Amino acid sequence: REEENTGSYGVPANLVNEEPRTGLRPLKRSKSGKSLTQSLWLNNNVLNDLRDFNQVASQLLEHPENLAWIDLSFNDLTSIDPVLTTFFNLSVLYLHGNSIQHLGEVNKLAVLPRLRSLTLHGNPMEEEKGYRQYVLCTLPHITTFDFSGVTKADRTTAEVWKRMNIKPKKARIKQNTL
Prior knowledge:
By secondary structure, the protein is of the alpha/beta class.
């Protein structure tokens, strides 16, 4: 495959042939053999993009639209792929220990109505000034960030930071043309 020669590693298509690690509870399967889980853990790999993620999720899971927990920690992702925003039931997203550079990538996650727990520590973006405040302003429904509970004081600090650092968008005044 060409991408193997270039060092690019997307979600491997052969993942559907892998047997999941055993957990505390046995994995339930549908009659078609697909997993009935609501979580997908692809942590500790060398993924640097999420090419084919939807396709693989559909092959592995009976109801990929019910996906509530995605763990992509400790990979080589450099951005937050828009494919993640298609899972509207997503409540837990682990992206820590990747290579995500820009804090603005967080904006993509604002469309996820149920997202409550997010990890981003261990990415280069963590070094940007106002990292925690920016994330909490952008994602006000988050209750846990980087494995730490979000307090009222955190929200207050984030709001003050927002007022001091984020310029409000100016309202465009429509001019009457006669």
